[in-house]
Specification:
This protein is α+β, with helices and mostly antiparallel strands. It is built from 12 helices and 18 strands. The protein has 3 domains: about 190 residues, no CATH class; about 80 residues, PDZ domain (Pdz3 Domain), CATH 2.30.42.10; about 80 residues, PDZ domain (Pdz3 Domain, Roll).
Length: about 450
């Protein structure tokens, strides 16, 4: 694992915990509750400083954190309640609800802010093709009946115009079955995904990829394509005298000719141009030590990039955390109902760390998107009515509001102890799933 990945993992966990606990801290101070300790990470403590009544700590294990409020009976089993005015337990129910839910609210706001920023600053990118290729000859796409070169026209009667439309429409409809209207060899045919297939291994993956045209997108000026004069939007029509219909055909010839001159023809603005291009060799060594090389010319697939207004970006920013949470609810429902196994639906800190490292390597947009998604997931799981989580404390408060009095300290401690046992058991189970997925 690279240093960048390690830093990215620690930073992601620290930001999520800091924002969550900051919500509790600020709400507690706002409601007049004394905060005794604010810790990022779990002991041992690496650094601490007391400011006013609060000891601020940075601890060694960056997998969580906590805010210790005076008069708060929590998973630490601290029962020291004196009835002082600045204690949590002395505040009315509504103020305690504000304090307990503030961490979740802050995580949702963080996710909304990141998604809004990314949508507004980066814009919207679409892959303008609905022609597809099968990526797994024994997967769901093959079972449905797809073959390379099929052009998807409609999904459940809804017209699709981009690869993104196909992915979204399939995922939204797969629990109820999906009808595809496909153009194949100038003939329109119907294909169907049976909802029963969802329970199969990887049944939620369509095993398709976009089969783009040979129109090029971003061009690296310092690579062979840029030095030849190719520009974004150019359509490559011929290589070494072979007519090119799609990106795969173009890529196959370029990769097969590292360091060799290739005759090329392309179209730009109605004109046709020709020349020679020498793919730059990329040398690789496989796991057996065998060396080989392939060629590249420094171009990407053609995509359509659209700027997005602030209000549209804000709309997306508000909607995306909701979509992430609904996705997690769907995954939990699949697991509990037995539709999917735990290793297909559950991921813990090991998997999150792996994703954070990979996202950092892919660039800041992917990395920030992952932090926003994780912040949404953290909010969702924290609000579940499980003792020791925010949702568990909220449940106590709602019971108190209905009964007109709180549960006894003895009952709350017992419930907390049972909740901690359940939570720790679940954490061990999730770690087992993570490690089993990683190594086996």
């Amino acid at each position: 694992m690279s240093l960048l990945s390690i830093v990215a993992i620690i930073f992601a966990f620290s930001v999520l915990v800091l924002i969550h606990e900051l919500g509790h801290y600020l709400a507690a101070r706002w409601m007049g509750v004394r905060v005794e300790k604010f810790s990022i990470g779990f002991p041992p403590t690496l650094f601490s400083k007391k400011i006013g009544d609060t000891e601020f700590c940075f601890s060694a294990i960056p997998l969580g954190g906590y805010v210790k409020m005076a008069g708060f009976i929590d998973e630490s089993m601290d029962t020291k309640v004196t009835g002082a005015e600045d204690e949590y337990s002395s505040k009315p129910v509504w103020k305690r609800i504000v304090i307990i839910t503030a961490g979740v609210v802050m995580n949702i706001l963080l996710a909304m802010g990141i998604y809004t920023f990314l949508k507004y600053s980066v814009g919207e990118t679409l892959t303008p093709t609905t022609t597809v290729a099968v990526t797994n000859q024994s997967g769901i796409a093959e079972k449905i009946g797809f073959i390379d070169g099929d052009k998807v026209l409609k999904i459940n009667g809804h017209e699709v115009s981009s690869w993104e439309d196909i992915k979204l429409d399939f995922f939204e409809n797969m629990e109820n079955g999906v009808d595809f209207q496909v153009l194949r060899n100038d003939k329109v045919i119907s294909l169907h995904y049976n909802k029963e297939w969802l329970s199969e291994k990887n049944g939620e993956y369509l095993d398709l990829r976009p089969l783009s045209s040979s129109r090029i997108g971003e061009v690296n000026a310092d690579m062979p394509a840029g030095m030849l004069g190719l520009k974004e939007g150019d359509l490559i029509t011929e290589l070494n005298g072979i007519h090119i219909d799609n990106w795969d055909e173009m890529s196959e010839i370029i990769r097969a000719n590292p360091g060799k001159e290739v005759d090329i023809k392309w179209q730009n603005g109605g004109g046709t141009f020709s020349g020679t291009i020498t793919p730059q060799p990329i040398n690789v060594t496989d796991k057996d030590g065998k060396e080989s090389s392939y060629g590249i010319i420094g171009v990407r697939n053609f995509t359509i990039h659209k700027p997005v207004s602030f209000f549209k970006a804000l709309k997306t920013g508000i909607a995306e955390p909701y979509n992430i949470i609904m996705l997690n609810i769907k995954g939990l429902k699949w697991w509990i109902s037995g539709v999917k196994s735990a290793d297909e639906t559950i991921g813990g800190p090991v998997m999150i760390a792996k994703l954070a490292g990979e996202a950092a390597e892919l660039g800041w947009v992917t990395y920030l998107s992952l932090i926003a998604a994780l912040s949404s997931v953290l909010a969702f799981f924290n609000i579940l009515p499980i003792p020791a989580l925010d949702g568990g404390h909220l449940s106590f408060l709602l019971v108190e509001a209905v009964m007109g009095r709180p549960l006894s300290v003895k009952k709350r401690l017992l419930i907390q102890q049972v909740g901690m046992a359940i939570l720790l058991t679940f954490i061990v189970f999730v770690l087992y799933i993570d490690l089993n997925r990683m190594f086996f």
